[in-house]
Amino acid sequence: MNLVARLLRILVVTQLLLGTGALPRVHIISPGFFSKSDAPSLTHFEPALETGLETVRKKYPHTNWTGEILHQTSFIDCFSLRDNIQVELSKWYYTKASGEDVLTVIIAPGCFESRYLSQLAAGWDTLLITSIDYTENIADRDVFPSYVTTSPFSPAYQIVYCALLNKLNWTKVYLLYDTNSGSFNAFQAQLLPVRIPANCAVQLTRQQFTSSFSNVSEQLQPILRDFNLKSRGN
């Protein structure tokens, strides 16, 4: 809640400067798309936003906390969100956003559009928080002055994986990826094999199959034989 406390201090100063006695207001705008299969979608994010708003309303009752989902027909997936976010969010900001007496905060899962969101947030001097994606060099406050993330990802997460595998004494890892699963799994399945440090001393094998195909059993048979050979063999 330290971040919330900082927001409230900013609000108090704003209220004093504007000379208004109205209840200070924080408005959260959350752009994105809806999809059951994609982790960085509003389908999974919106419930957390609603429960989060309920929590801060109880903890900080002297502030008016409001939230809004920004969903456009052009927001279909991570790629279309990236291509359209600056246009659609700018339309909202310049036509529907509240005045100077309201503190606007952008909170979103974050997908491929995080860098473009951060450019807008920096120009508007608006706080941006993402929960899944993050922009490279986010610590550079000259470039990203108002962007923070709660994402556990970092450029060094492969080192963490390697340390964990070594701690467990795992020398062989078999990665089986279902191409019918969500985008997060696809991201990890593609990135992890090429990012594991060369000195990790872990033999990693990557295979894939498609669970929605009718011949899934036929797909898995050679994979299981390969797994047995590499993981169970001497």
Give structural notes.
It is a single chain. The protein has 234 residues and is of the alpha/beta class. It has two domains: 2-149, Rossmann fold; 157-232. The chain contains seven helices and seven strands; from the N terminus they run αβαβαβαββαβαβα.
Give me the CATH fold name of the largest domain.
Rossmann fold
Largest sheet strand order: 2-1-3-4-5
Distance between the termini: 52 Å
Global Rg:
22 Å
CATH architecture verdict of the largest domain: 3-Layer(aba) Sandwich
Give, in order, the helices and strands.
HEHEHEHEEHEHEH
Tell the overall outline. elongated
Indicate how many domains the architecture comprises. Answer: 2
* Total beta-strand segments: 7
CATH C-level category of the largest domain = Alpha Beta
**Strand content of the residues, in percent?**
15-25%
State the secondary-structure class: alpha/beta
CATH homology group of the largest domain: Response regulator
**Number of continuous helical runs:** 7
Q: Mind summarizing the main beta sheet?
A: 5 strands, parallel
Helix content: 40-55%
* Mean of residue pLDDT values: 83
Which stretches are low in confidence, meaning pLDDT under 50 for 5 or more residues running?
none
Keywords:
234 residues, alpha/beta, Rossmann fold, 5-stranded parallel sheet, two-stranded parallel ribbon, 7 helices, 7 strands, 18% strand, membrane, signal
